[in-house]
Amino acid sequence: MKFNQSARFLKDELQKSLEKVKESFGLFKKEGIKNYEIKELLEDIEKGLGNYASKIDKLIQFDEEKYTIVQFLNEVLKLEYNGIWDYNMYASSIKDPVLAGDLKKFGASEGMHALLVANMVKKLGGTPQFNPPEYRKKKKLSVKEMLEEHKKGEIEAIELLERGMKKFSDPEFQYFIGKIRLDEQEHLKEVEKLLKEYKDLQAMIDATDYRWRDDYAGDEKDRPWIE
Ligand SMILES: [Fe+2]
Ligand SMILES: [Fe+2]
Predict the structure, then answer these.
(1) Which ligand is nearest to the CA of 115?
(2) Domain spans, the chain
(3) Residue 149 alpha carbon to ligand 1 centre in Å
(4) What is the pLDDT of residues 117-159, one digit of tens each?
(5) CATH number of this structure's domain 64-222
(6) Where does the chain have alpha helices with state H?
(7) 94 CA to centre of ligand 1 in angstroms
């Protein structure tokens, strides 16, 4: 990233100037110059430059790895949002209250993930990207097809999270992503179980006129990905 290069250069230059100020200050004392104004000025410059150098150093710490982690987390966020959307959409169109309840439960879990991921993005200094899935228009499909769709979504999420775990070594990140992956693996197992055991896989779902309300994640302030 060009910015990081430039910021590092700036930091080095500040550091060099700071050394020059110290050198001047040393000479000022050594040569017994009695000018209080110069002394004060040198002290001010030293303090100011030291302050800038340490501030820019902190900025640089938002480095390339963090930048790519934020990009990655925003990819995760996109999948979570697809999950929230789809699970809730089908839950609201399914007549069987038990199956609808299961789907709602998955949707709530994806909502929790979205919240955690968005907060992590913010913690890293990034901006959570809200990428709403395309509006799902009128759609007719069987329970089996719907569950197959979810199975694909869960696998996609697990694969993405595993790629992230391989790519980024930060222990806090590993732990964070690892926990979400465990949930997705659990979802996958449950969806597979439903695919084997659900009593009427051929029943048709008519997901029409669907309007999603995101009441799963508490107050609006708890949904940082919505601007
Ligand atoms: Fe999730
Ligand atoms: Fe999931």
Answers:
(1) 1
(2) 2-60, 64-222
(3) 15
(4) 999 998 888 888 866 665 555 578 999 999 999 999 999 999 9
(5) 1.20.1260.10
(6) 2-30, 36-60, 64-91, 97-123, 143-167, 171-197
(7) 21
